[in-house]
Amino acid sequence: MKVAVDLERCQGNGVCARKAPEVFGLDGSGRVTVLQPEPRPDVHRSVREAVRRCPTQALTIEA
Ligand code: SF4
Questions:
Q1: CB of 14 closer than 6 A to ligand 1?
Q2: Could you say which of 1, 20, 39, 58 would form a disulfide bridge with 9 (CB–CB 3.0 to 4.6 Å)?
Q3: What separation in Å is there between the alpha carbon of 54 and the centre of ligand 1?
């Protein structure tokens, strides 16, 4: 699994960081930062949930 972010879409609301804090955080400018671009298998489920819940569709999973 690889996670991609479209920073143009991110509104920094932190939904993803709450769902999968091991993988997503917020940087100083109020946008998402990806802590694990290739998340470990044990967090795949929460990453999928975070991607689904992002209100701006800023996150995608590549294979
Ligand atoms: S849930 Fe989406 S809009 Fe919110 S911080 Fe994460 S990537 Fe950005």
A1: yes
A2: 58
A3: 5
Q: What is the CATH number of the domain that holds 50?
A: 3.30.70.20
Is the CB of 11 within 6 Å of ligand 1? Answer: yes
Domain of 40? Answer: 2-62
- What's the pTM? 0.94
Total number of domains in the chain: 1
Q: Please give the Cα distance from 20 to 18 (Å, whole number).
A: 6
| Cα-to-centroid distance, 10 and ligand 1 (Å) | 5
Positions in the chain short of pLDDT 50: none
| pLDDT reported for residue 42 | 97
With tokens 């960081």, the residue in question is 17
Q: Count H helices, E strands: the chain? A: 2, 4
